[in-house]
Amino acid sequence: MQVRGRSARGLLIALALTLIPVTADSAQKVTPGSTCKVLKQTVVSQNKTYTCTKSGKKLVWNKGVAAVKPTPTPTPTPTPTPTPTPTPTPTPTPTPTPTTAPIIIPKTFEELYGNSSGIAFAAWSSANEKIRKSAAVTVRQDIFVGPNTTVPNVNVKAIFEDSTKLFAGFAQPQSFYAVYYRFQDKEWAKAKFGELNLSHLAGQVEGSCASLQRCNGASAGKASSTVGFSQYGVTESGGKTDIYHLGGGLEIHEYTHIAQAMQFIGKQKDDQNLNYLPRWFIEGHAHIAGNTGSAKTIEEYLKNRGPWLSDSPNQEIKSFAPVDIERFYAALMPGKYNAEMFNYVYTIGYITMECLVALKGIDSPMDLIVQVSNGLTFEEAFAKVYGITWNNASPILAKSVSHIFLVPK
Questions:
Q1: Strand bridging mode 42-45 / 22-23
Q2: What is the pTM of this model?
Q3: What residues contact residue 256 under an 8 Å CB cut-off, 6+ apart?
Q4: pLDDT tens digit sequence for 139-153
């Protein structure tokens, strides 16, 4: 329906006023019975809601009712999503690292007992350092190899050079012979010594190579005042040969005997040569030199050392108790020999010398030999080099060496 003119506008205004609630507080005070203008209009005043009603012909405000304040709908507080607590990864219980007892380098004879690791380390370190710091001494090597023989170690020339370094500072030969032979070449070896004017060494060839199965012995010494000799029986190809024979230990051992003999050249004791020294000292010195001098690391030295500690006592020595080790020393002192006891110069004698080298260094055995070559007895030289009499040192060494052999490895 379309409405025109002023009548239409008035109707629209009236409808608007009817439908729109009025808040009277901002314009006029509304009281019950007072005049209002629009029927059914409601206003809120003084917390009451008033409605315009018709009373007779008048429009008036009613008594009003208490205004109900709308309860505000609370804005919901978002419930936080809990952060998941990660399941802790269990901390693995660390496996305890085995504690290794510290190596104590012995400084006194009293510190030797029960100190096998410290003794071994000190002895090896002394020899290794001497070789590392020393220049090779010019000594000509004349190496002869039998027609059916192969030298066990391809680096034999370098090994002999290390031997000269180990004895730098002491008398050494101008040259030496090294003769290698298998059992099949025994006659060749004897003939070779004949060519070298050393026919008397034929007996040593027999001793070092008694049979096809036992041909791995060796010996050495001085051929003249300037020349040394050494001879080596070589085991059959594929035969059982230990690292001592393959790793250069045997060559250094035998060169040590040449160097020992050279300290007596031109001295008043030269005729009797090494008879002024205990046999356990002579062979023990060569063996400690060979084992330490051929090992590049302490681990290698300990590996080489192990087999020499697995010996068993024979009927002559009886046991490895200190009292029997002292009997061993006494049986092989200067001028004395016992064939059954001699078997232990490479075991008991070797470890005894290891103790002495650990205390006073790899040069100390040769220092003692020089003192003996100059006229001192073994006991006098021992006290001078090691700072203790042999009588006092002997029971300490015997007890210490006994412990190394008897305690489980």
A1: parallel
A2: 0.75
A3: 163, 166, 167, 285, 286, 289, 290
A4: 999 999 999 999 988
